[in-house]
């Protein structure tokens, strides 16, 4: 027990599916290294079906206080020491007095473009609402590389992405709920919705 929770041996989290995924990634990297004589990052499947993913959450309370949290889905067979966007404040996660943002996608691109912080900076320096600020940041990213969920201090919710789809959901205390995966779901083309707190 740790802090009232049962703990598991690390071997508990090793599954046959993960062992097979690792084997395939190692083989793909070996083939790529042989071809180019230098290790290269193997591109994500074009259909986005990696089977793993980031979990992000943004929240605003009745007083306008904002919070963002992001948990990485990670990459299989990454180089030792690689740090993704999730733990870097401003890249994959950010919150200030204007908005809270959690991003998912290609970590190196998200880090390079400081995606989460840029949404807040565009709001701050351009005076744009969350929806427009997020759309501007996402439009400036290589395709397909990023998705984000965001909420402003006034309760505007935005779920923007430049990928084929992004698992996403929104709910409010007032009972507004929306769930989507593909571009043609609920918030067509990654548009945002303003909800009352």
Class of secondary structure makeup: alpha+beta
Secondary structure: number of strands: 9
Oligomer class: single chain
The overall pLDDT, averaged over residues, is: 79
The geometry reads as globular
As a percent range, the share of strand residues is 25-35%
Report the C-alpha radius of gyration, rounded: 18 Å
Strand arrangement in the largest pleated sheet: 3-4-5-6-9
Q: List the uncertain runs.
A: 33-50, 186-197
Helix fraction?
10-25%
Helix count from the secondary structure assignment? 4
Largest sheet: 5 strands, antiparallel
Elements, N to C (H/E): HEEEEHHHEEEEE
Task: Report the end-to-end length measured between terminal Cα atoms.
Answer: 39 Å
What does the model show?
The protein is of the alpha+beta class and 197 residues long. Strands 3-4-5-6-9 form a five-stranded antiparallel β-sheet.
Features:
disordered C terminus, globular, five-stranded antiparallel β-sheet, 197 residues, two-stranded antiparallel sheet, single chain, alpha+beta
Secondary structure: elements and pairs:
Elements: H1 16-36, E1 55-60, E2 66-71, E3 93-95, E4 99-105, H2 107-112, H3 115-126, H4 130-139, E5 146-152, E6 156-161, E7 165-171, E8 177-182, E9 193-194
Antiparallel strand pairs: 1-2, 3-4, 4-5, 5-6, 6-9, 7-8
Helix pairs in contact: 3-4
Give me a quick take on this structure:
With 197 residues, the chain is α+β, with helices and mostly antiparallel strands.
